[in-house]
Design brief:
This protein has five helices and nine strands; from the N terminus they run H-E-E-E-E-H-E-E-H-H-H-E-E-E. The chain is of the alpha+beta class and 214 residues long. Strands 1, 2, 3, 4, 5, 6, 7, 8 and 9 form a nine-stranded antiparallel β-sheet that branches. Strand 8 and strand 9 form a beta hairpin. Helix 4 packs across helix 5. The longest helix is centred in the first third of the chain and has 15 residues. 19% of the residues are buried. The mean pLDDT is 95.
Length: 214
């Protein structure tokens, strides 16, 4: 395997990010960008985000999850608390999330502190999920080694029979995290690799705004 990718080239020229046009709140800018990406089309899941945690082995690990709610309290996603990422957050709840929206040549990186949401909030969301997703959460001991795909499918079939015409209970180890931001970085692609990078840093309830060199 030997591939030369040095010829991959793209000029970023769709937009810009100037200080005089910035809102005081990074949440407002994030909300505006999110809406613009939704309206522009070309992204299958606008709410897909990469979350990076520090594993129990000391290595960082990044994976894609789906953002399910955001407001000025933070960014909420759901997972199995006993999963690899859940265990990592329990040990070190300093995390990083990022969004990449290539159709508008934009990226947002957020550093924050992850905390579990209230159980009632998790239960409301769990009940709103399709039954297949609810059963899947019960069937899967996320991140644990299993013998085969057949093992997982047999477990799901058994649960389908057990909960036929019954309400499916939320697993005790399943729920949401809210990531409370301490720093945002907004990246807008620009020509000649002179990209716009604007950082919002939380300073005692006020946000300090700085431009970073690309």
């Amino acid at each position: 395997m030997n591939r030369d990718l040095t010829a991959y080239r793209k000029s970023y020229e769709k937009s810009f990010l100037e200080e005089e046009n910035l809102p005081d709140s990074p949440f407002k800018l994030f909300s505006d960008w999110f809406a613009e990406v939704e309206e522009s089309g070309g992204v299958d899941e606008t709410n897909a985000m990469t979350i990076t945690t520090t594993g129990l082995d000391g290595f960082p690990k990044a994976r894609i999850v789906l953002l399910k709610h955001f407001d000025e309290n933070g960014f909420v996603f759901y997972t199995n608390y006993s999963s690899e990422k859940g265990k990592a957050i329990t040990t070190n709840n300093k995390v990083c999330i990022s969004f990449f929206w290539p159709n508008l040549e934009r990226q947002v990186i957020v550093k924050g502190i992850a905390q579990k949401v209230e159980e009632e909030e998790s239960a409301r969301y769990f009940l709103s999920r399709p039954r297949g997703s609810q059963l899947g959460a019960l069937a899967s001991d996320q991140s644990e080694v299993i013998k085969s795909r057949e093992t997982l499918e047999n477990r799901l079939q058994s649960l389908e029979k057990e909960y036929k015409d019954k309400e499916i209970p939320m697993p005790k180890s399943w729920g949401g995290y809210c990531i409370m931001p301490i720093e945002f970085e907004f990246w807008q692609g620009r020509a000649n690799r002179l990209h716009d990078r604007i950082r919002f840093s939380n300073q005692k309830k006020n946000w300090e705004i700085e431009r970073l060199s690309p």
